Amino acid sequence: MVAASQCFVEAIAMKAIGKIAGGQCALILVFGGMVLLSIGSSPPLTETQPVSADTKAVGEGNCKFTLNLFSTLPQSGANQVISPLSVSSVFAIAYEGARGPTKEQIASVLQFPTNQASLQDGMAGVLSRLTNMNSSDVELKVRNGLWSLRGYQIAPGFMDLCRGKYGTDIDFADFRTSARASSSRINAWAEQNTKGKIRNLFAPDSITSDTRLVLANAVYFKGKWASQFDKGKTRTKPFWVNPERPVQVPTMAQKSVFLYFSNDSAQIIELPYRGSELSMIVLLPQGKGGLTRLEAELTLNTFTNWIDRMYRADVDVLLPKFRIDSRFSLGQSLASLGVRDAFDEARANFSGITSDRPFFISSVEHGAVIEVDEEGTVAAAATGASFGCAAKPMPAIFHADHPFLFIIFDRPTRMVLFVGRVANPGA
After folding, report:
1. 299 and 413, same domain (yes or no)
2. What is the C-alpha separation between 151 and 117, in angstroms, rounded?
3. Domain limits at 290?
């Protein structure tokens, strides 16, 4: 893990090669996203936007899907990060074209509302909420893209829905005759929508003459902490990767007022981003060997209960600087959760997209990178006052010196942008 001069988080999905098998055409799903944390110096600001019932339902469903999906990833004790927002965005579009059991399985696993209008309005609300919070303090861009083989019979209603409900960029490509040129065009789209942070999303041979459709998502986030870590206080300290083995890593420090909660399982702290209701939740297990137990215990109900019980407290915080780069093939994880037919060329039903040779999903590849350091924070005024006490209480101690989880989410909707595990910030 190497500290960088610029703090950024990237989440990309690489490739799913379209192929013709058993008379069907493979559908390519691509996820891409990037998070950039940058420095600032203004006081914190919270902007409250009304949240509709449909938007809240989609966000809470995404939170449940996040925890279910994360539990299927390899439990090797390695650093990991994924972007559930990116995955949900692309599968919402795929869901619109699915029919029968394929559609039911996607809705069940992704935790989508079964009422199509509720899903459309809820996703539109999420995207509008996230992208409209842009200001001098926070920038969040979420884009969807679709590329179809030129001349292929894609249902006009599906195209209209992608444009109207999901703000999807629609284009056509000559995959049969110009696969490499098509790949370059899609790479240029990804690069543009992540402000140059994601280049060459597809390798030259990733898109072939057999490709028929590509769905893509790109996320760009630039935010400022509401309370900064002073670089002058960063020190090299031990981080216990297991109860017997420490590694020495640069560790940030500050004492301030944060939302906080503690029980027998974990300590939880919320580190907000300025000018928005986006936050990073850090879940630190009690005990140096408690991460596996915490991950097993973490469900939507427990997470919601803990978040709702957080209170303002003076907290002494130690947090290591870290950078994580993850790559996953999510097909097996999604199938294990119940999305089976979509990956089966004999049973997949995406007839809402095309009545030509039926589609199936050949694979889903996802990658993510996150980096956190002092430049992801800003100077802020934060005051905690105690009433009716004769003496100021001692601050809570939140020293993240052993493996922990983090979640970047929108508090009112519980929509999760990124989730990950820091097992060894020095790796």
Report:
1. yes
2. 30
3. 231-321+375-385+393-422
User: CA angle, corner 402, sides to 399 and 407, nearest 5?
Assistant: 80
Cβ–Cβ < 8 Å for 324, 73: no
Residue (of 118, 131, 30, 110) closest to 63 by Cα position:
110
Average pLDDT rounded to a whole number, residues 194-201: 71
Q: What is the CATH number of the domain that holds 279?
A: 2.30.39.10
Q: How far is CA 362 from CA 20, 154, 265, in A?
A: 10, 18, 40
Structure token digits, residue 144: 């969807």
pTM for this predicted structure: 0.82
pLDDT digits (tens, 9 = 90+) for 247-299: 999 999 999 999 999 999 999 999 998 877 888 999 999 988 889 899 989 99
Q: Could you give the number of structural domains in the chain?
A: 2
- CATH number of the domain where residue 62 is located: 3.30.497.10
Say whether both 276 and 134 belong to one domain.
Answer: no
Whether residue 357 contacts residue 351, with contact meaning beta carbons closer than 8 Å, is answered with no
Does the CA dihedral 410-416-407-223 come out positive or negative? negative
Average pLDDT, the chain: 78
